[in-house]
Amino acid sequence: MKESIAILTGGGPAPGMNTVVGSVAKVFLRNGYRVIGLHGGYSGLFRSDPRTVEIDFAYADNIFNRGGSAVIMSRFKPTDKNFAEDFNLKFFTDNNVKLLVTVGGDDTASTANRVAKFLSEKNCPIANIHVPKTIDNDLPLPGAAPTFGYHSAKAQGTVTGSIIYEDARTSENWFIVAAMGRSAGHLAFGIGAACHYPMIVIPEMFHKTEITIDKICKLVVSSVIKRKIMGVNYGCAMVSEGVFHALSDEEVKNSGITFSYDEHGHPELGKISKAAIFSQLVDARLKELGVKVKTRPVEIGYDVRCFTPIAYDLVYCSLLGFGVYRLFRAGATGCMVYVNAQGDAQPLYLKDLQDAVTGKIPPRLVDINSQRVHSVIDHSLHYITPDDYAAAKTFLENPEEYDFRKILNWSEK
Fold first, then answer.
1. Is 360 a member of any domain?
2. Catalytic residue list contains 136
3. Of 33, 59, 126, 341, which residue has the fewest beta carbons closer than 10 angstroms?
4. Is residue 332 part of a domain?
């Protein structure tokens, strides 16, 4: 029987999913392998009738430059009970599968290792190679290499962000824009910097103080007042959703926002618009101050995940896909494929990224102390400084409370 490989996609989509799958398929097809796409992520391996698609050249060529994922994704994560009772070993033996290629985040990668270990124990060893993705760009790849999909999501987010900024200028309004990124502010900072937003709020900015709703609102108000002093009556503030997720339970409960709660009593933050929440909170603060400015919310998230990949990701994801074959031929398994700045594919093992104590992969954060970041903060953002206190008293009784660096507990320049 012809040797085959199986490909599955896990987690949420990112631009370039189809490019990876199409590129993997093309290189293995030309080298004599059969390629099987497994729909439903890992759920397909834990049912007797998995949904599959035969990936031939025409299929791969049709999808490789498209957004979304033709191989249906899932966040399904198998339990020990699933492995004991539901694992479909016949899928691997009947199809003579020699390699399982997984495309997803670190959860997808760790589950791939569990699958490979389970198959080995059943005397059906296969190789497994993972292709890491996230538009959040928070996986600590060597050499500051981006995660695939990030640049495309940022590009599309910048298109949306620029349109919103033009609307603000045209109608003399303020918009509160929120961008995805649960742990790190890469996407929010990248879009905000590209659009010259006068205020960007990301969790990394609070490295010297606790994140609170009061501080978030003050940062936005600081920008609004600074622009008023400048004679500019419009603007946009970019806020990373990670700022909200970093709030303490007490802060969330005291926010005045109504949430639905899960079975464990935790607020279901993923079901609400962070932009709408921040807009509501900022509006309330502006009203308290007697500043006649109303904000409007815009959420950037789901609209960038299935965006058509830009040229950068088309090439990058192709190299990742071709790299899977190179690593497989070299005998690598239980690893992720990593492509360095020179385009060389190398194996990267989870243990190389995991924290030695917790075993978790720590997120790669925005380097808040870098010259790149401070160039934007110092020269592009607008906020109150001590030089503005006298003029700001027209709008604020205590302008020093809205001093950007005081809010964040940063030392003066």
1. no
2. yes
3. 341
4. yes
